[in-house]
Amino acid sequence: MIVLETEIKKIKKALNYSTDLVERRLSVENRKVALLYLDGMIDVKTIDLGIVEPIIRNGALIKEDITALDGVVETSEKLEFFSSRKDALEKLLTGGSLILFDNAKGYAVCSAQGFMSRPIMEPPVSSVIKGPREGFTESFKTNITLIRRRFPNGNLVFKSFTVGRYSKTHLELCYIKGIANRKVVNEIERKLKKIDIDGIIDASYIAKLLEDRKYSIFKQTGSTEKPDILASKLLDGRVAIIVDGSPTVLTLPFMIIEDFYDSEDFYRRPIRTSVIRVMRLLGVFFAIFLPGMFVAFQSHQYQLLPLKLLVTIINSTTGIPFSPVTEMLIALVLFEVLGEASVRMPRFLGMAMSVVGGIILGETAVNAGLLSSLTVLITALSSIGLYAIPDEVGTFSIIRLILVFVGASLGTYGILIVSIVICVYVACMESYGVPYLAPFAPLVPKDLKNSIIKLSMVDLPERTSSMGLKNKIRLKYGK
After folding, report:
1. How do residues 385-395 score in pLDDT, each as one tens digit?
2. Total structural domains within the chain
3. Which of 74, 104, 359, 412 could be bridged to 66 by S-S, CB 3.0 to 4.6 A?
4. Based on the domain organization, do 298 and 407 belong to the same domain?
5. Cα-to-chain-centroid distance, residue 446
């Protein structure tokens, strides 16, 4: 039996007398009733109309067994009953309303979450001209709804997990039964259950804990902020992980070719998509190799350059007090700092800072004789090219820096050797049994139809072979 006054004191003590705990007292047929909830975490209308009024009208029906509330409370939210105070408090802390009756057995909690959340908007880094503009929010319930709307099918499966000793973060594992590889689903479930951490604040925490190679500079989990992109990945056999409080949904297994795709690739004509993907690949290639090769040619293999270009370089670098590698590093650091500052400044100053700051600093450095105009040009081209693949900027910028040092010390031969080593390393990587460089290494001719070159939907009747799926047929098309 619960003695109401004593129980409320114990609950307040368990919550360290937190001031956002709201206590509402009711009297029903000379019997004491209390509602406890956290201010700002619940919907007040649900509490008033669905819980308080029905209890006042029908509270006399509840004797010792509090489960009788199931026929009294008038809300669409789930009513749960607990015999343990600890379990009831966990639900209270996630936005539930704890209902206590004097001299009753057990605790009742009604999920009445009503805290404010960001509205559904187009993600800032995945804007499109054609196609859906919906984006995920920080509310996992909203995100689940956005996915469920696209698959009104019983084979869309959601499994719940709670991770974090203090944060108690809610996770949802999502996949399509009959398409996703069951071994991959089981492996992800096993890893999620093994996680023991103080708290999960964002999906990036989970991404790091699910990666096989913890210290690799290459990302090993996919991510998206758009429901339509996630839907296409689920249809390809991937597994999604939704983290409460994060607008980013993780996907596994992951292949690096995924980051070369854009949100709008699915809605353009195939020939246009193919041309743009080639441009992205070239942009990233030049972004990574231009600074290192420029330093290597200046320091070692200048004889390989055409004479006119060599004369141009000599004229532009005459009088520069720094060595080629020092000059390049100064320019790269300058652009990196400028980019970080523009992101963290107020929005109305960020654009002006990035444009005016880049022009003024670059021009001033050249006129002062600290940097050559070619170095500034190559650094600018490289920095722009990196953002052709936004999700890989961090990885590619590190590789670019490594190649600058290698080019300064070993020349073009060193850059070639390091590039081969990186390619071999990446080719040996796997993500839950799927080759990281698929469909190029190992070569899967069928999957090349939707890699850098994209064919029409009617030419892609099968799902990606690299995923190892049993259900391979995507489309049955008859003329």
Report:
1. 888 888 888 89
2. 3
3. 104
4. yes
5. 29
